[in-house]
Amino acid sequence: MSNGLIIETNSLTKIYKTGKVEFKALDNVSLKIKKGDFIALMGPSGSGKSTLMNILGGLDRPTSGNIIFEGQNLAISSDNQLAEIRNRKIGFVFQTFNLVPSISALKNVALPMTFGGVPKSSRDTTALDMLRKMGLENWARNLPSELSGGQQQRVAIARALANNPSVILADEPTGNLDSATGVQVMEVLSKINKEGKTILLVTHDSSLKKYANRIITMKDGVISERK
Amino acid sequence: MMKDIFLMGLDALRSHKIRTLLTLMGIIIGISSVIMVSTAGTSVQSFVEEKWNIFDPTGMVVGTGVATDPPKLSFNQVVFTNNDIQKIQNLPHVKDAAPVGIVVIRKISVRDSFLKWRSAPGSTLYASSSILLDVLNLKLISGRIFQEGKNEVVITESTALIFGKDKPLKLNDFIYLSRIDGRLLKAQIVGILKEAGDESIINQFMSASIIGPVDPYYSNYIGSNAGGILHRVTAYGLLYVTATDKNNVENARNEIIDYLNSGISDAKKYKDTRYDFVVITQEYIISKIEQVMGVINMLITVIALISLGVGGIGIANIMFATVTERTREIGTMMAIGAKRRYILQLFLYQSIVIGLIGGLLGCILGASGSAFVVQVLNNYLQELGGGGFAGTITLIYPLEWFGISVVFGIVVGIAAGVLPARKAAKMDPVVALRYS
Q1: Number of residue pairs across A and B with CB atoms under 8 Å?
Q2: Which stretches of chain B score pLDDT less than 50?
Q3: pLDDT for the residue numbered B388
Q4: Among A102, A142, A167, A202, which would you mutate to test the B interface (most chain B Cβ atoms within 10 Å of its Cβ)?
Q5: Is B86 left (phi over 0), alpha (psi -120 to 50) or beta?
Q6: What's the rounded Cα separation, in Å, for the pair B226 and B341?
Q7: Which of A223, A219, A224 has the alpha carbon at shortest distance from A46?
Q8: What are phi and psi of B141, to 5 degrees?
Q9: How far is C-alpha A63 from the geometric centre of its chain's CA atoms?
Q10: ipTM for this model
């Protein structure tokens, strides 16, 4: 954490077994992510970038190797510990927005705080602030289905920011949006990064490279970075 | 936290109103039938206990007939002597024994002046002792009880009106009773009884409208040639007996049967051997009715339980479908920090709420449904009684069953929700997020 290191992985390996066939999704991945980084993780599908993101995000554990997230080794953390890390230190943005359809935009944004045990009044204030930041304060009471794709993704970004996490993991955030809306969303992410938030963007759209300060390419479970 | 997750569960239910409603139906039907069964059962039972309360709960009728189950009384054997009554009275668990002599009255007359008479068709006079009033639960509304050996009777309110509502018979009036053998019995009215006849089925056909002492109104003799000398002994066809208390009714009954069947009873000597001694207790009558109702209750309860089970399966089914349908949502919630137990709670709360609301709505529906059932039963009773029998079943809600039903609804909700909720909580977030 000193010298601004947020995530450090050592020889991360993930092997999937289907029957007798073994598939090495991650092969000795060692990576350092520093505070304020905007990393674009690129590579063709099947290259292992989703697997890496899942492990960096505490959704999955490596077969071997360590991942130190702000001093805590996620490889040996329990389900509940991982849930807490995800809740407080990581903000997820998904390609398909993944808002809870039965609750309002405001409640969606407040959801990480709900799971984090934040009292309702301060939850609602923060959530409304986040929506305002995304220019969506007038849509707070609307259900996700009443919002456009771009609006939904901005609600999702607001949700990802709600608990003031250390890192935002965005998995193809523009994949389901038209290009103009995609640009808007990327600009929002860029703005957040400039405010100091660390962002890991997973994409295979090379036009998004320009927003990142580090570009990591994956192929067959191995990463490479052009300095 | 739990409250927030609970509210999220409510939101989810609200966002699928029709699905929730249909799922509720199963529970509502099950619970409402439980309520209907228990309410109708309680109401009818209390009706039976109240209206068939022909005598005190410790009371019993002793007679002759066929000792089958249920026993049949026949009224053609007049065998119980005063000696028997005395002996029965002295049995350890017997409190009182009263003879009932049935005197058929052809007509009842009053004398307005020396030559001016008015008559009305008569009914039955019960010749007995004052104990009978206690045994039959009859209450005096005015006057006093008759005295043995005097020409005194008590009559019911309706008998007081046989000469018209405008000319009611009053206390101290004299009436003349024409016995079937032609003898005219003079009687002074000393007491008016509270009407019980139109309330009780038994009283209705027994119609104890006039009650007087054995002496002078009753004379039924049997000949006995014991020892070669012909005795004329007063005897009765029926006795009313009370036990010392409710718990000893069966003891008293057995003592009476034992005494009567022993060699020392007069009744045994006079009774035709084709007949048995029969003792019918109040408890026996009620237990018979309860037995029948118990079978009906059990059948409907089984049906209610089956429908509740089906309702529970319905909840489980829809919860499984919901969990599958919301797989990605579950993955998302896990990704943003929901612990497994929150996911478990989220779905469990939904099925519990369905069980709870189903239970409450089922109670409401069951309460109105049973009001309807009791109404239908009452209409049927009216037809059965041809208007003469005015008994109605009072709606009594067994409140404990409402509580039990709501708890039961919740239990069904929990039971049905556990597996789907566990399925949701055990999901791998990576797999769940990839689900489409």
Answers
A1: 78
A2: 197-205, 225-228, 386-389
A3: 45
A4: A102
A5: alpha
A6: 92
A7: A219
A8: -95, -20
A9: 21
A10: 0.94
